[in-house]
Amino acid sequence: MIRMWERVIIHSDINHCYAQIEEMMFPELRKVPMVVGGNEKSRHGIVLAKNDLAKKYHIKTGESLHDAYQKCPDLLVISPHYDDYLYYTEEVKNIYREYTDQVESFGLDEAWIDLTSSQMLFGGDPIVIAREIQERIYREIGITVSMGVSFNKVFAKLGSDLNKEKGLTVISKKNFRDVVFPLQVRDLFYVGKATTAKLNEKGIYTIGDIAHQRKDYLKSFLGKNGEMIWYFAKGMDISEVALSSYEREPKSVGNGITTIHDISTYEEAKGVFRTLVESVSSRLKDQNLKGSIISIHMRDSHLQSFTRQKKIDLATNISSEIMTTVEILLNENCLSYSGHLDKPYRSVSVCVSQLRHDYDEVQLNFFVDENERQKEKRIDIVFDEIRRKFGFGKIKKCCMELNKELTNFNPKEEHIIHPEGWFK
Fold first, then answer.
1. Which residue, of 146, 173, 225, 370, has the fewest CB within 10 Å?
2. Going by CATH, does the domain composed of 1-173 fall within 3.30.70.100?
3. Topology of domain 252-423, CATH
4. pLDDT in tens, the chain (424 residues)
5. Listing from the earlier edge strand, what are the strands of the sheet with 76-78?
6. 423: burial class by Cβ within 10 Å (0-12, 13-18, 19+)?
7. Right CATH for 181-248 from 1.10.10.10, 1.10.150.20, 3.40.50.1360, 3.40.50.2300
8. Which residues belong to the active site?
9. How far apart are CA 108 and CA 7, in angstroms?
């Protein structure tokens, strides 16, 4: 039991979010193995969510539709309806907000709810309140959520992961060693595949193993991340749940695409990257931001990938400046011979980070013509205005027209944040 004077944090997770919303809208889908997935012909053929019947065939989120069909030839694939997902997940969060103003979203399908200050208004028992919220969501919207109740955000999220399908797990200061310590290190928040491998190499396999290490030892081979997960494992996370009205400053702005066919030439790569760059540039300006680190990520046809980045002298949100850096990274890392890339690539992305406000003071650079920079920025703004009024495809740079099949997409409008589970 969590005592009244302790922090009371709930983490709520909409089970199989996209698939469950489809089943809620179309109940007949509950009777067949079904996944929500992209367009296989356009190579966006990945499972975004699955229902319970598809799960029985061991279909996994993130695998290709081709592989999913191999496991279940009768699989029904539903194209995603993002507007519906945005609407219904917001309706769920509106119920959370009836209990507290501290509701922090984590993707579309997850949220932390801080009841520390408001629990007495609803009876004072966090477990009863959590059950009430679960029942209301199911009764009023038709969606099930799993919940974790704990004294910090990390353990609350861990609890919601332990007992899916409308489950509820309580992790208290009294029981967390029994509940949390036996779990694998990969179950701890922010411990991904690479960190898991490094920990396992050192003979560290469980969350309890992490907690029993010296903090400095973990930091010696994991850096700051080692220190952070040591605090997490010992139940010492003190991060706050943000207010519903609070919007975090983004740390980066980026866009990516899986192309309709492999990119094999420099000109093809340039056209796709230019399309992505113009979206990133526009989104930066929309948020009055600029950045000084440009990075590209490329994945080949064998699903091997790399990321490269370059720091520039003057922070920017100007598309031509971002593109110049992207071209440098392309030339340095994957240009082979006579205009060809070193290998075919199937997906690419570009990102701008180390952000600052666009209205921050400009550091003068005698080697840069600031008037010319502002001219380029005004050109970007004109392009953005035309696209807002008439559509993204109504005005394009020449390199975006050389292979329309590759560049016929709108990265800004199609930019969707997937549930957190997508990245696991």
1. 370
2. no
3. Dna Ligase; domain 1 (3.30.1490)
4. 555 547 999 999 998 999 999 999 999 999 999 999 876 555 557 888 999 999 999 999 888 888 899 999 999 999 889 889 999 999 999 999 999 999 999 888 999 999 999 999 999 999 999 999 999 999 999 999 999 999 999 999 999 999 877 799 999 999 999 999 999 999 999 898 889 999 999 999 999 999 999 999 999 999 999 999 999 999 999 999 988 766 667 788 998 888 878 888 999 999 999 999 999 999 999 889 999 999 999 988 777 889 999 999 999 999 999 999 999 999 999 887 777 888 999 889 999 999 998 875 555 555 667 778 888 888 888 887 887 777 766 666 676 666 666 666 666 555 443 333 333 3
5. 47-50, 34-37, 76-78
6. exposed
7. 1.10.150.20
8. 110
9. 25
Q: Token pair for residue 336?
A: 């082979």
**Which amino acid is residue 306, in one-letter code?**
F
Rounded distance between C-alpha atoms, residue 334 and residue 336, angstroms: 6
Cα(353)–Cα(291) distance, integer angstroms:
5
Indicate the annotated binding residues for Mg(2+). 13, 109
